[in-house]
């Protein structure tokens, strides 16, 4: 399979390249030079972070043309193993069945899904089983988890958003949110909706927390979401973000990029984008 065709099969949507990032582009692109570009594709949850990283990487390595696309972790891993791309961005670790000797997976950042309720709520802590029951609609009244006798209103982002994907795949183990879920377009709207509804329970990414929020962040299994608990993976809904490469040559463009993401300069970008740094 040709490298370009494999990227198209990732099912991604091209995004405009910033004007200051001449060497960072997306498929489709034309007038390719004779140089082999560094192709990076994968999790949409990492796309904005990876784009920022590639912009700075290109300033340091102007002889490397970087091509970046968003898609899914699995499709990127398949493309990587077929030699269609150089770096796969994954929002999870490798499974036992996916791992192989020539494949290297590098942790570059962490994130998490934060559970929030209205400030008037008496709920301050939930177990992961209770969270799952509330989000799926199995638990429809707050009294079931020690709250008031009131109906539960789930608030979440739209289908296809990184937070929604993580909730359904990891927290709900492939299940669906309650049919009565109030869908919002942005994390800010989720926070505002929960802040205005005493019955609400919402889910946002940790990086999307906002200063002066009028919501309460719920402990899960007795653990608060914080940089320390996310870094240590003690918080139950932690999301680990990786870059995977094949045949790990320290001098290859792929490894140069991975090393940059783990450097002080790369981790500064991770922090700027409100992810939890890992180095």
Structural description of this entry:
- It contains nine helices and 13 strands.
- By secondary structure, it is an alpha/beta fold.
- It has two domains: 3-90 and 249-277, D-Maltodextrin-Binding Protein, domain 2; 111-231, Periplasmic binding protein-like II (D-Maltodextrin-Binding Protein, domain 2).
- The strands form two sheets. Strands 1, 2, 3, 4, 5, 7, 8, 9, 10, 12 and 13 form an eleven-stranded mixed β-sheet that branches. It has a two-stranded parallel ribbon with strand order 6-11.
- Helix 2 (47-60) links the parallel strand 2 and strand 3 (66-71).
- The relative contact order is 0.18.
- Mean pLDDT is 89; it is low at 6-23 and 26-34.
Cα end-to-end separation:
36 Å
CATH superfamily of the largest domain: Periplasmic binding protein-like II
| CATH class term of the largest domain | Alpha Beta
Radius of gyration: 20 Å
Question: Could you list some keywords that capture this structure?
Answer:
two-stranded parallel ribbon; 2 domains; D-Maltodextrin-Binding Protein, domain 2; 279 residues; alpha/beta; single chain
Layout of strands and helices, then pairs:
Elements: H1 3-8, E1 24-25, E2 38-43, H2 47-60, E3 66-71, H3 73-81, E4 87-90, E5 103-118, E6 125-126, H4 128-136, E7 153-157, H5 162-171, E8 182-184, H6 187-195, E9 200-205, E10 215-217, E11 219-220, H7 227-231, E12 238-246, H8 253-261, H9 264-272, E13 276-277
Parallel strand pairs: 1-3, 2-3, 2-4, 6-11, 7-8, 7-9
Antiparallel strand pairs: 4-12, 5-9, 5-10, 5-12, 5-13
């Amino acid at each position: 399979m040709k490298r370009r065709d494999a990227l198209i099969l990732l099912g991604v949507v091209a995004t405009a390249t910033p004007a200051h990032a001449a060497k960072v582009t997306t498929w489709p692109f034309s007038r390719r030079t004779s140089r082999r570009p560094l192709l990076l594709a994968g999790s949409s949850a990492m796309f904005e972070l990876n784009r920022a990283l590639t912009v700075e990487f290109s300033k340091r390595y102007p002889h490397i043309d970087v091509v970046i696309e968003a898609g899914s972790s699995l499709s990127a891993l398949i493309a990587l193993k077929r030699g269609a791309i150089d770096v796969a961005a994954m929002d999870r670790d490798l499974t036992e069945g996916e791992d192989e000797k020539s494949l290297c997976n590098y942790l570059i950042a962490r994130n998490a899904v934060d559970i929030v309720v209205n400030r008037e709520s008496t709920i301050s802590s939930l177990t992961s089983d209770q969270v799952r029951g509330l989000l799926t609609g199995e638990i429809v009244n707050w009294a079931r988890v020690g709250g008031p006798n009131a109906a539960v209103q789930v608030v979440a982002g739209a289908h296809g958003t990184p937070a929604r994907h993580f909730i359904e795949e990891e927290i709900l183990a492939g299940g669906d949110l309650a049919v009565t879920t109030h869908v919002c377009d942005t994390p800010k709207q989720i926070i505002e909706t929960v802040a205005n509804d005493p019955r609400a329970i919402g889910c946002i990414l940790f990086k999307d927390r906002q200063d002066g929020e009028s919501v309460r962040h719920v402990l899960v299994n007795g653990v608060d979401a914080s940089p320390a608990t996310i870094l240590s993976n003690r918080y139950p809904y932690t999301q680990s973000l990786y870059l995977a490469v094949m045949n790990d040559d320290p001098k290859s463009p792929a490894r140069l990029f991975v090393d940059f993401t783990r450097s002080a300069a790369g981790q500064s970008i991770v922090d700027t984008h409100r992810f939890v740094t890992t180095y």
